[in-house]
Design goal:
Elements (H helix, E strand, L loop, with lengths): L6 H11 L12 E4 L9 E4 L4 H9 L4 E4 L16 H7 L3 E4 L2 H5 L4 H8 L3 E5 L6 E9 H12 L5 E3 L4 E8 L7 H6 L4 E4 L4 H10 L2 E4 L2 H5 L2 H12 L5 E3 L11
Length: about 250
């Protein structure tokens, strides 16, 4: 296996498809653990850094993990034994995180989500986060069932199930705050990951159906896409989709 590429070369490739300078002011994307000069032995892709992801990387000889969620999001006041950050450093792992740039990028998280749920002719809104397209006049309940099946979303929630949906918007993760934008753009429904009680109340008041399919479910879908993009760019490097599980369980 070719070890000639460096972490910095992988960073530059990711920057070319999802520019890091497009990240939101509150975000923390980039090379967050490791060194740009480090030779790459293997690359793993995942939604986020967990103990399970680190163990998978160790077992498979991976020394660079590329994730969507930042391993350091809020300022770290301590790095203690047993935390994922401490373990990543102890293992000599390099970690590149591409969060909001990958949400907004062409072929990124929201494009992948729109494609998975069958949104037709999706277009990007001014924020870069929403993808807006048509779904053919099915009810919001039928759309929610379709989303559940495509994303394997066991705990999906929906309001306005009887509303006919001709135009819908998607935003992965926590996108409920873009609901007014979706409504202003003529959408009958917004599909996102997380939504709170008051978001559903606001949706009812606005006259828009809100579908919350789960944060993990709407974003984990980018990990295999990242693997394919990295394989295409670095065909002589082992690129692995690291195993991970939804941290939220549904109690029957």
């Amino acid at each position: 296996m070719d070890h000639s590429i460096t972490v910095g070369e992988v960073y530059r490739f990711l920057d070319s498809i999802a520019p890091f300078d497009t990240q939101e002011s509150w975000d923390n994307s980039g090379l967050l653990v490791g060194s740009a000069e480090e030779p790459v032995c293997g690359i793993g892709t995942a939604l986020e850094i967990t103990a399970q992801v680190l163990e998978q990387a160790r077992l498979q000889g991976v020394n660079l993990i590329v994730t969507h969620h930042p391993v350091i999001f809020h300022p770290a006041k301590a790095v203690l034994r047993g935390t994922v950050l401490w373990e990543a450093v102890r293992l000599g792992m390099n970690v590149i995180c591409c969060h909001t740039p990958l949400d907004k990028a062409d072929g990124g998280v929201n494009d992948t989500l729109a494609q998975r749920i069958g949104l037709r002719q999706p277009e990007k809104d001014a924020s870069g986060f929403l993808r807006i397209g048509t779904v053919g006049g099915i009810t919001a309940g039928e759309l929610a069932a379709q989303v559940r099946q495509e994303l394997n979303a066991a705990a999906l929630r929906c309001c306005g199930q009887d509303r006919r949906v001709y135009r819908a918007a998607v935003c992965s993760g926590a996108g409920a705050d873009l609901m007014a934008d979706a409504k202003a753009l003529g959408c009958d429904a917004l599909i996102t990951g997380d939504a709170g009680h008051h978001d559903f109340l606001n949706a009812e008041e606005m006259g828009i159906s809100l579908i919350a399919a789960g944060h993990y479910e709407t974003e984990r879908i980018i990990a295999p896409v990242l693997r394919e993009r990295l394989l295409g760019a670095f065909p002589n490097v082992n690129v692995t989709l690291l195993e991970e599980h939804n941290p939220i369980s549904v109690v029957e």
